[in-house]
Amino acid sequence: MAAEKKAFVLRINPETLKELERWAQEEFRSVNGQIEYILNEALKKRKKGSNSDPNPDADPEVG
Which segments cross the bilayer (predicted)? Predict the structure, then answer.
């Protein structure tokens, strides 16, 4: 059985929304589907990176 999805309000810059709409259309997705896809890909990338670098956002010049 698929997990239930949670709805929430998203405030977004109109120009960003236009770009998302174009991108979603190019990839045959809804805007909601495109946002979910982008977020899932970013989370996968973040998880992969966390294996080698515990703090990928850290400034290498500091510390």
Answer: none
**Within a domain: 3:** no
Q: Tell me which residue range forms the domain holding 35.
A: 14-48
Q: Is residue 2 part of a domain?
A: no
Each residue's pLDDT tens digit, 4-48: 999 999 999 999 999 999 999 999 999 999 999 999 999 999 999
Give the chain's domain count. 1
